[in-house]
Design goal:
23 helices, mainly alpha
Amino acid sequence: MSNSFYIHFIRIKFSPTHKPCCLLQLTPFSSATTATQKPISKIANQNSFAVDYLINTLGFSPERAFSASKYLKFKSREKPDSVIAFLKKHGFTKQQIERLVKYYPHIILRNPQKAMLPKIEFFQSLGISKTEITQIFTTAPEISGRSLERQIIPCFGYIKSLFDANGTSLSYLKFAPEALCCNLQSRILPNVNVLKESGVPYSKIVYLLQTHPRTVMIDAKGFRKLVEKVKEMGFNPLASTFEMGFNPLASTFVIAVHVLRVMNKSNWEKKVAAYKKWGISDNEIITAFAKHPHFITSSTDKIMAVMDFFVNKIGMDPSVVVKAPALVSYSLDKRIKPRYSVYKILAEKGLIKKGSCLVYLFKCGEKFFLERFVKSYEEKAPRLLELYQKELAISEKASMK
């Protein structure tokens, strides 16, 4: 396998056609002034009523209000007051209303009976709760300006068909509201088809939509190249086993596609360099990435801290970490250190063999850890639970500073 795979990936990731849907380009209003922008003072003077309204009614900061006023021209409270009253009536909190106006300012001047009510009623007809509906709108504010008949209903119908094919509850739609704002024919359909062609089952496609919907919403050409890149990193569709590389039947395949979408070249190279400082090779890094894609998403500081603890504190060989890459994703202070304190007591008392089941001790769920490594030794190590809880309290206190 070529170690230069990432160079090819970068050409894909930063191609001119690799752009997310317009919804994903929404960013909070900035108070910065460019050469083509009018100074804030002039904007405020031209639309001081809107600025005052945003500050006094919605709690905007002066800078954010000045910036938003470029998009909101009104000199009466009647229209925005009616919109806010409508939103409050339908369960939106003050913070949610602020977010809607912040990311989709035009909503405050639109007729809510036409722009919002039909969409709210549509979601209600599906059995979606009021709380979930407000979550949908605040997660994807642009949905307020999308056509119900031409955009939302067709996208919903297709996504529902995927969920139904997988036996997934419709309530999970609240995890992927952005997809309802994306072009069905030019993005979602072709991207889902690429995954199907690659052998990815419905369950994993739905999983990607639930957890990382924006990845499915990038342009079709860029998405196909990302999927092909994941395949090139070791996946052989004709092989019966996947000792190295990505199995399209596993969640790691679609997670890897997502990670390659969000990871830029500079960050990737920094993470690789951090692991190499511990003697881990390129191929080992790729193998670990295939097993656990988030192995490469931890910050360089965390990578160095966790590896230092495993190698220098515990005496673990770096190759062990590569074989269990999820270890790097765990919290050093809230999981690894407290559990290691339990392990040390058990090993010192001869209750477990030194070096045995150490990786499993870190990886197992909290409930099982307590049953297997703490409560089962209550008689021979009566203060073990107290020690563990004390270590957790210390880490929690430290994290709050």
